[in-house]
Specification:
TIM Barrel, alpha/beta
Length: 233
């Protein structure tokens, strides 16, 4: 689109666009206030043409996702409709985010993305808990096997132990041996604390909200970028 598909992935902050208010806020951002913008196209499925027209005013490279209903997606969209929306917006994307559960059903979308030089995020979202470490390692291995550039994990951190589990998962050396990058974040009570700690500890993509939070434990994206910069000093 307007930005290189080779934008580095390292400690980046992502502002998520999931409503008209967040889109309006994204359009007001200056270049550099966030590193990427995630477009939650499932939230705009009935207004896709209007969303497409707005993309030219955005000042950051785009992460494209059409979220599965079982992982927080809006509108109970089926695979065929999700495929249509992915293909419509793929020309604008620097990265594409597909849930691990959807990787086989949307393998044709992933193949097109790779052919166009679009990096692939394979993701898992758990809105109830932080899964056991064994399960997290299995998910990471599956993402690596399927050729992801990034494995993204978002999980509710209800206790200090679950927050520590997320940090421990990020710190394990297994992913680096395969070249797989990790984006790890918490939601819920320990979400804000975890996002600072994980962002400072090597999570390559760190998500914040624009205009209003979508889930508990999020930072405003611009403030998150400022706080992570402070931790580097």
């Amino acid at each position: 689109m307007f930005f290189s598909k080779n934008t580095p992935l390292s400690g980046s902050v992502v502002g998520t666009i999931y409503s008209q208010k967040s889109l309006d806020a994204a359009l007001r951002l200056a270049r550099g206030e966030v590193d990427f913008l995630e477009i939650r196209v499932d939230e705009f499925a009935s207004k896709a043409a209007r969303l497409e027209k707005a993309l030219g005013g955005l000042q950051a490279p785009l992460i494209l996702t059409v979220r599965h209903p079982k992982e927080g997606g809006a509108g109970e969209l089926g695979t065929a409709r999700r495929r249509e929306l992915f293909e419509l917006f793929l020309p604008y994307a620097a990265l594409i985010d597909v849930e691990l559960r959807s990787a086989v059903a949307l393998r044709d979308v992933l193949a097109i993305a790779r052919a166009r030089g679009v990096k692939v995020i394979l993701s898992h979202h758990d809105f109830r808990r932080t899964p056991p470490l064994e399960m997290l390692n299995e998910l990471r291995a599956k993402a690596a096997e399927l050729g992801a550039t990034v494995f993204k994990l978002a999980a509710v951190a209800r206790t200090p132990a679950e927050e520590a589990r997320l940090l421990g998962f990020l710190a394990e050396p297994r992913a680096s041996r395969t070249g797989l990058k990790l984006a790890v974040m918490g939601m819920g009570r320990y979400g804000k604390v975890s996002r600072l700690a994980l962002g400072a500890s090597g999570s390559v993509l760190n998500y914040g909200y624009l205009a209003e939070p979508q889930v508990s434990g999020q930072w405003p994206a611009v403030l998150l970028k400022e706080r992570l910069r402070e931790l580097e000093e």
